[in-house]
């Protein structure tokens, strides 16, 4: 089998990889890359009567054929899993990286993009598509400093290398702290999504199901310790309950390393011509400037603070004397309170068996009835990485397959501790989009998995919001689907889509559809339907308020700190105290009591590009999505509204800012105060 023959077919399946391994893969990839380079260079340099845009589309196809269409992410992932192929993996990975760098540092391509006048040179029907792909290229050029002189480009490359070094140092120190606290690293590689091979090589730490443990452990000391371990170090478990020297835990703070990360990120941004790193981070997002985001976040703090001023007394009533309102105590107290006050709700999860919820709730109710697609569960799928993985095909009304969805639902010891969704194959003339969604639900000793209403809302429905965005995004322009930043919403906008789908939990008909006792088959009683659609808004509101304040801290660290001349710890304390001064005293105290509010909950903003000056990307989209949720509820979750959501938002990708798309769907301007009012409505 040759490299050209190894690609997804119309069923979203790949051929047997072992056949491809019999060839000299490195030589084939080199030939493919060299051929693409030669053809691109020829298009850019040869005289032609073709329009600039027609030439750009030819070049785009050649680029995407190398990076996506020839299943390169899957080839790299498969090689990364095989230790005997490490040399081949490194060679191919380097060739693809060098090709991408060559492509986006090509001055002639830069000139071609700048020569395209959308209004003058492009027919009106093609203008949105042109704008979409030009935006992708121009942002990529900007990020790579293509217009900089060689001396500044060299400085930029060194700064980026230094930033990667400090981030690696930070992660290494966190793992060291984890080991000293009693964590046991696994010898197995982290099993992640197949199209991110670099993640397969990361060291992970064994994960336990800690969410339940935090809520049900009777020892305050053990809950506190487990909570710190969970949120301070990621996927972890406790192997003994011996007293731990907490001074060892301070290793994770790495104040000097964090300062170096912030200052080096600032250097990268200024070399690229931005005022600070926060401004650089905005180019992939729905907002235009850090100032615009900060204004939105401060409004949310003000509105939520006032809304929650009467809730703290109620929350304190769940706690024992002297306990503070932090997440460990509050989760524990609420669980005990609910069990004591609502005997009728005991065993509610037995009505929500995973496979039943997936089939009747997601596939039948959402995909078929609300969005108007057909679906088919694949029998005996081959070539998947685990026997628990479930495969569905989504079809249009004519029966044509338009997408494949792979669901990896259950916890495994060497599986990443996360819920996430990613596309691994794009729509082309020969293939359909293939999307994987990962969960970490736990099976009991009988092999059954039961979901709480919270799991259904925040995990299952949320991730399937991403699934819809993945297979509908860019559908009008399949030649562009290879690049997620073109085909999908902005990196913060995607969370608006997924958060909107969480509202489906509050549709009683949805709960009745999925609620069936796993042993007797008896439909869920109406009193449990009402319990399942209840929301503890006070607790959720307090959590979102805490997250909003942390988002302000994150943004100011990347905008104001590098030139502040202040000590890092003092800088963070000054910002938080200033915000807390604007809150009602009891609300401020409740926020401050949560240890996640302090540095322990901020480690990911230093090492993950998605969260660097981007922690807000879950807060603001969640608040904005409440206006969409209100529209869904007002329509009694009608199929027409779901189809409108797909047509006006999910499928539009990066044609316009996500904010504009949301407002077009709503028919009104986004207003945070209105969104919060909608959220607090019963």
How far do the termini sit from each other? 60 Å
In round numbers, the mean pLDDT is 75
Task: Please indicate the count of domains.
Answer: 4
| CATH C-level of the largest domain | Mainly Alpha
- Total of helices: 31
Q: Tell me the strand order in the biggest sheet.
A: 1-2-3-5-4
- Under CATH, the topology of the largest domain can be stated as Neurolysin, domain 3
CATH architecture annotation name of the largest domain = Orthogonal Bundle
| Beta content | under 5%
The largest β sheet comes out as: 5 strands, mixed
Structural Rg: 25 Å
Please state the overall shape, judged from the principal axes of the Cα atoms.
globular
Q: What report would you give on this structure?
A:
Helix 2 (25-45) packs antiparallel against helix 3 (52-69), helix 16 packs antiparallel against helix 25 (537-559) and helix 28 crosses helix 31. Helices cover 55% and strands 5% of the residues. It has a five-stranded mixed sheet, covered by helices on one side. It folds into four domains: 3-147; 181-253, no CATH class; 280-311 and 537-680, Orthogonal Bundle (Neurolysin, domain 3), CATH 1.10.1370; 348-532, Neurolysin, domain 3 (Orthogonal Bundle). The model is unreliable at 180-218, 229-253 and 475-486 (pLDDT under 50). It contains 31 helices and five strands.
